[in-house]
Amino acid sequence: MALDQLSATFAALSDPTRRAILARLLEGEASVAELAEPFQMTTRAVSKHIGVLEAAGLVTRGRDAQRRPSRIRAEPLVDVDMWLQGYRRLWISRFQQLDERLAKLQMEGRTGDRE
Amino acid sequence: MALDQLSATFAALSDPTRRAILARLLEGEASVAELAEPFQMTTRAVSKHIGVLEAAGLVTRGRDAQRRPSRIRAEPLVDVDMWLQGYRRLWISRFQQLDERLAKLQMEGRTGDRE
Lengths: 115, 115
What we know:
Two copies of one chain form a homodimer. By secondary structure, chain A is mainly α. Chain A is 70% helix and 5% strand.
């Protein structure tokens, strides 16, 4: 099944090791060997994860034949951010409701003190 | 495999139908039958998708035995937003680099006009 871009991005992000690899690449580009080290994984396993990230457009590989360093790409994350934008009003309005309920409870508490 | 919460959320969001169901629930709670209608899917297929969303905490089901309306939950999306926060500096700095490059090109263009 050909995934749409956003689905491919979410699927690639649904693995803690792949998110850890992205977090590492946020500090700068790295070769497969450099990425494998902190994770105590085989380079073969790390290569597979990088392949998934690359297919989703979250990573590009350098042309240097020896190292082929991985570099993080921001574009799919910008798309996630834009998708999320539609849902922000949901939690903002729910936080506001919670705020109002708290304020009301505090008002009632104060009225109770006075009585 | 027991998925961590964030992985479960990303996995649940990696399907366009599940994202469409969430978008519908943003307008208000809905029963399985109400959700199935616009998607021209069987209620069985929709129920499966809601089950995945519910397992990831993105949806809760009402107690009304007849309708069991689904309601969207904001919390896992807030977690995605917080995760994304670490990556925003990435695209902000890349946009700034692009901006600076453009400004430089425009400056060079203007200098060229004068000559």
